[in-house]
Design goal:
The protein has 141 residues and is α/β, with parallel strands linked by helices. It has five helices and five strands. The chain has a single domain, classed as 3-Layer(aba) Sandwich (Rossmann fold), CATH 3.40.50. The protein has a three-stranded parallel β-sheet, sandwiched between helices. A hairpin with an 8-residue loop joins β4 and β5. The chain starts with 28 loop residues before the first helix and ends with a helix.
Length: 141
């Protein structure tokens, strides 16, 4: 198992009054970055990528899974079905991670991802997703 990471730095300063000009068509930087990274990287048809997002809200995990599908790369999504039922996706398609991966692993995290209530705190602590990803990653490896 190898970690997949990518980033891009664009230095294209523009005056604040020009930043929100309309583009020629729909464009999402996170989606395009995922597309470029996966096409330029060393993953190939038949490989397997594990993608994690407890809430499934973020654009990048969904974009990665969708691009993997286009490239014939199999995907495993680590997420929380209970959490994701309470939120909307930020991905332009409206899809969530569980909608676009080949295999879904439900980490059992509750909405908010916290499992331990400690007297005196107004909110629960300890993210279930972190503990479950350690176990899930260990099992896959």
């Amino acid at each position: 198992m190898q970690a997949l990471s990518f980033s891009m730095s664009i230095n294209d300063p523009v005056a604040d009054c020009l930043k929100n000009r309309p583009r020629g068509g729909p464009f999402d930087r996170e989606c395009e970055l995922a597309r470029l990274a996966l096409r330029a990287g060393n993953l190939r048809r038949g490989d397997v990528v594990a993608v994690g997002s407890v809430s499934e809200r973020s654009v990048r995990p969904v974009a990665i899974a969708l691009e993997c599908r286009e490239l014939g790369i199999h995907t495993i999504g680590f997420t929380s079905i209970a959490y994701t039922a309470c939120i909307d996706s930020d991905h332009p398609s409206g899809k969530k991670l569980a909608d676009v991966v080949d295999v879904v692993v439900d980490n059992g995290a509750p909405y908010g991802d916290a499992a331990v209530e400690i007297e005196g705190n107004d909110f629960p602590l300890m993210p279930v997703s972190g503990a479950s990803m350690v176990v899930g990653g260990w099992v896959i490896r």
